Amino acid sequence: MQAGLILGTLVKKTILFAAAAFNVATVAHADELSNLQEESRQLRAQNETLTKRIADIERRQRRLEALPAKPAGVTLAAKPTVSVPADYAYKAKPKAVDDSLTWHGLTVYGLIDMGVTYENHGAPLNSLAGAPINYLISPNSNGRYFGVGPNALSSSYVGLKGNQEIADGLAAIFTLQSQFNPESGSLSNGLGSVAQNNGLALTQQNAFGDSSRNGQMFNVAAYAGLSSPAYGTLTYGRQSALTSDGVVAYDPMSSSSAFSVIGFQGATGGGGDTENRIYDNSFKYGVNVGPFRAAVETQIRSGSGAFVAPGNAFEGQIGADYLGLSVDAIFAHIEDAVSASPLGVGVVPTATNPGAGFVAGKISDNTSFMFLAKYTTGPVKLYGGYEHIDFANPRNPMAVGGLLPGGYTLGTVNNTNFTSDRILQVFWTGVKYAVRPDLDLTAAYYHEEQNSFRTGAINVGGTCSTSAFAQCKGQLDAISVLADYRFAKRFDAYAGVMWSQVANGLANGFLHRSAIDPTVGMRFQF
């Protein structure tokens, strides 16, 4: 009885303990559920707040993007987050100011180059010639010259160019440019300087130079066309030959008149004759594809073959750039190319209409190959070039009275000077070193080699290598050095010298065989 009573008591206690434990567990689970529900509610509230904040920021961003662009020159002040010494206080970097003469896509630009030069063997200044004095040894280089040295490092010019987008990725372009002589203000007129010396002996002549710039209003360029970054540039009108562009780009002296043989003569850039350094009535197309480039150019004869020169011409170019190295190859063929000179003493032209003036003309069909290279490594640029020019008698001879660019007339004509082809090889090399960002030092060497193309030469092997005849084998050499200091944004001062000499056939008819031309000057560009 007592045992049963004890057993009943134990059962009751066990049931009560289990009920209490179950109640505690139920209460704990209810608390955990309540906490999770509260946390979930808070996270949803935070998410809604962030969503509203993001939407507000995006609305403000859209409003700011719709506002007009901030005017140039306005700089927002930055608030420094930490204090810094006064010497290192924050300063906003000023923006570069565009002070070019550009308005609605039209740009006026130009350059003026004036200096002083001395020549131990020179000729009096000619205000018509593009290079008004004999910087390079020339047939009429004779007495000393000391005076103004215009257009020594660069030709002086003024121009107007335009670039206007007419469709997506397509722009209409044009260029009008004139070269002038700063000492006189007259337009450069090469054939005018030649005609000025008609009938004069060498000792009486002043400086002159055959040229493609012959007093035309736009004697350097007058062309227009279309340009696309993807499809290239096509232009038509009066424009430089590809060979001329190559000389400018790969000559260490940048086709300078006072310090470069190929700049003063112009024949290298003209595929044999300087009158073809610029083409009239020409089409020119160039395109870049990655590191490669290609170009073609053609000139169409502007009239009857016997009375208008030069004739048809074609040029082609391929090139590439790779890791500081640039290379180009250019081919040119020109019909009825003209080398002009003054009429000899006592020569009376048979033509009746002098036009702007008579000149004597030596006519040829020219074929040239030009190979160019330059390499840049740090502050150093290395240059090299070679041209092989073949002069042959013209297939379509010119007639006395034929017209030349600028309105000049052929008073006498030689269509048979090249019974055997003349081969002229031109070599050049040089280096430019940037001592500082505003100071360049340049040195260059030039060499020309002419074959013997005299028919019936008496020397062994059927060749001649004396100065007795212009058709004999001959050489020209020149060395030049230059320092160019850019002391202000649009001004630079320069000092340099070129020594040149001729030998054998290339010295035929020269009063002296060598010359030196120390020159100092200044340029202003706008």
Protein architecture, described:
This protein is an alpha+beta fold and 526 residues long. It has a single domain, classed as Porin (Beta Barrel), CATH 2.40.160.10. Helix content is 16%, strand content 40%. The chain has four helices and 21 strands. The chain has a 16-stranded antiparallel barrel with strand order 2-4-5-6-7-8-9-10-11-12-13-16-17-18-19-21. Strand 8 and strand 9 (292-299) form a beta hairpin. The longest helix has 65 residues, at 2-66. The termini are far apart. Residues 1-30 and 69-93 have low confidence and may be disordered.
The count of helical stretches stands at 4
CATH architecture: Beta Barrel
State the shape: elongated
Main sheet record: 16 strands, antiparallel, barrel
Poorly predicted spans: 1-30, 69-93
* CATH top-level class: Mainly Beta
List key phrases describing it.
disordered N terminus, about 525 residues, Porin, elongated, 4 helices
Compile the SSE list and pairings.
Layout: H1 2-66, E1 101-103, E2 106-119, E3 145-148, E4 156-167, E5 170-180, H2 190-195, E6 221-228, E7 232-240, H3 242-250, H4 261-265, E8 278-289, E9 292-299, E10 313-322, E11 325-341, E12 358-377, E13 380-392, E14 403-404, E15 408-414, E16 422-436, E17 439-450, E18 474-485, E19 491-504, E20 514-516, E21 519-525
Parallel strand pairs: 12-15
Antiparallel strand pairs: 1-2, 2-3, 2-4, 2-21, 4-5, 5-6, 6-7, 7-8, 8-9, 9-10, 10-11, 11-12, 12-13, 13-16, 14-15, 16-17, 17-18, 18-19, 19-20, 19-21
